[in-house]
Amino acid sequence: MTYPALPLPGASLALPGPRPAPLPGAERLDRARARLATRLVAAAGPDGLLRAPCDSRILESALALRLLTVTGVDPDAQERLTRRLKTAVDEGAPDPVQEAAARAALGEYVDGRGALARLLGGFDHFTAGRKRLMFQTLLAELGAHSFPALPSPGALFEARGQQRWLVTEMAALKALYAHGTGAPGLVTEEDWRALEPCSLPGPPPYGNHLARIMALLALRLRPRYAAAVRARARELRGWLREDGGLPFITGMDVFATATGGLALAGAGAPGHTLRALAAALAERRNADGGWGFDRGVGQSDVDDTSYCVEFLRATGPGPFGAEVAAGERYLLARQGADGGFPTFERGTASEVAITAAAVNALAPEPAHRTAVEAAARFVTARSEAAGPFERSWSLNESNALFRTVLAHDSFLAVAPGSPARAEVARARERAVARLLDTQNADGGWGHVPSDPSDPISTAYALVAVARTPTVPSARGATGRAVRHLLERQRPDGGFASRPDQAGPRPLAYHVPLLTDVCVLLGLNHARAYATHLSPEERP
């Protein structure tokens, strides 16, 4: 299957403008894009969504081993998890907290408090206090250290108004802490009710294995749930990956289909392919008008909804108008007083990358112009205050940077008379300058400056720099980035990269298909603007 460079306008991540003319050297780029497009189409499952499973992770594997051990079930699954953890320790864990979790689950002595300090020492984020409490409690449950003495512990575990799986996680942590410190009276009936859905058979609620394992560890402490906990523990073997470990989440099929659909649109995939993907997404819309990250995830979020709206709109007017309108209403209902958007619920902290995604989804509709301008001003103000390189759900600086550049472009395209144009244009220049200043000598980018280059970080950056062809240094950076990526394409057409997603932030997890999606997006933008490159700058 070969896809020509046939762009679809109207979506910020699809190729903009007219089809570029053939160029010397462009054939290699087009072949690389066609191979990637073919891989993405082949990833579609029977239900029409792209299959994007999550790799196993040490934290969930350690907690799963703990659950099987304390319930005394499935020795074979215990052995598989033990081997997974021993291999991880031997090969080197990705962060000190997960290494401490693995060693504790294996019965080895660790300094859990020291591991926690090393992980969160540079984690400057509004969730830092909650993450410290979470990891501190989980490491205590695993035996890495004793449960700490906390002031007002009941209030510390409060999570009203937050996303549903966070409510579950905090109730679980509260129960584990209360029983671990000899104060079971701290746990209320409301807490037990929040945990109860995790005792039911079937996939984990909200597609979140971590939340369910935490809940089961807590529910085992109440006799009435003992049988259900043992039954769910026996079912764990069905969720283990080939390496014997348990993943953080079930997968990201909805997110991958929305972003992958945009990538395929930019690569010129046939209309029937795009419509099939769009129809599958439309069927997964939640009752509130939004989308979650995977099938069966009833907790909608701004990020997934923004990309779904973008892709459904990119398939052309008509068939998905109702779904697009519902998604737009969902987004608008979550915009904060500061103009920004949170990931999940209105009233929680607004985030730069999430707000940028909402701008791209809402900008094409003239009726949303006021909301779009307020959001663009939020992104600009945050950029001026602290730099537009937030690291949040992605561990990459270049993730927030490319999103903000797209949002700036979306706003500038639809608000010609806005007084905010000058400041938005300046913010865009700063974002691109940051990328140009941090490109590695090999043409790629890493998670942060001085990190080794990797394909997904490079692809994020490429989207932004390729869209700035009037700047000579950006043209040169584009050519170097494309060459860097093409040299790393595997024989099967795909790309391998280091984990980029984060959750619970700042722990990394890996969904391999997203690397292929993002590289195709980056290469699409490079191809769209290739007419501006001199022969020396072309791949």
3D structure, described in words:
- The protein has a two-stranded antiparallel sheet.
- The two termini are 23 Å apart.
- Residues 1-11 and 15-24 have low confidence and may be disordered.
- It has helices at residues 26-42, 58-71, 75-91, 96-105, 112-120, 128-142, 153-156, 164-180, 189-195, 209-219, 226-234, 253-266, 271-283, 302-314, 321-332, 352-362, 369-386, 397-414, 421-438, 455-466, 472-486, 513-528, and strands at 501-502, 508-509.
- With 539 residues, the chain is an all-alpha fold.
- Helix 1 (26-42) runs antiparallel to helix 22.
Please give a handful of descriptors for the protein shown.
mainly alpha, two-stranded antiparallel sheet
